[in-house]
Design goal:
6 helices, alpha/beta, about 210 residues, two-stranded antiparallel sheet, binds glycinamide ribonucleotide
């Protein structure tokens, strides 16, 4: 059984998609939020998953918070750490500790539109396709090796919300897929490059 620890800061719909996927061989050992009021914590509890709120505001520095967070995560002996709408910049020490076993999902086709407000910026830039990316986490923000992407059209009538909803539906498909590959031992990071063994490509590749 592979232990998964999921970090989030808010709504928790990606966490829910992973929990609902019921991935054989995977156990969501804990869901941890840096925001005590995160909706995702309630959802996790409704699935019977252990939850923990660790308020970043109660720590003196980013380093102190990340050290405390890492210690809590380690208690669950994670094989994989999944960032699912976890909205804090991570320290290098934290990233190195979980290198090769920490995934993130970002709501754009990386390397375009790193950072915040991706959908608004995509519409403003006039791009005709948008999407989402699952990647391994490296110290540089939104920069790690890409595991899987999904593409959606940007329609002339789109606003930030309509585009976000279209992208989110894809996130709920590709994140469980990436986690499943990892749990099956088919996805790994080798010398900084993503390796996926024996996986069937989707209609747009991966
Ligand atoms: C998702 O769209 C995810 O890609 C994004 O936050 C949302 C979380 O939604 N993550 C980032 O922007 C990370 N930089 P959720 O809480 O419903 O899963």
């Amino acid at each position: 059984m592979k232990n998964i620890v999921i970090l989030l800061s808010g709504r928790g719909s990606n966490m829910e998609a992973i929990a609902r996927a019921g991935i054989p061989g995977a156990r969501i050992a804990a869901v941890i939020s840096n925001r005590p009021d995160a909706k995702g914590l309630e959802i996790a509890r409704s699935f019977g998953i252990e939850t923990l709120a660790l308020d970043h505001k109660a720590h003196a520095s980013r380093e102190a918070f990340d050290a405390a967070l890492a210690a809590e995560i380690e208690r669950f002996e994670p094989d994989l750490v999944v960032l699912a709408g976890y909205m804090r910049i991570l320290t290098d020490a934290f990233v190195r500790r979980f290198e090769g076993r920490m995934l993130n999902i970002h709501p754009s086709l990386l390397p375009s539109f790193t950072g915040l407000h991706t959908h608004r910026r995509a519409i403003e830039a006039g791009v005709k396709v948008a999407g989402t990316t699952v990647h391994f986490v490296t110290p540089e923000l939104d920069d790690g090796p890409i595991v899987i992407q999904a593409v959606v059209p940007v329609l002339p009538e789109d606003n930030e919300d309509s585009l976000a909803a279209r992208v989110l539906a894809q996130e709920h498909q590709i994140y469980p897929q990436a986690v499943r590959w990892f749990v099956e031992g088919r996805l790994s990071l080798e010398n900084g490059r993503v390796r996926v063994r024996d996986a069937q490509p989707g209609p747009l590749g991966w």
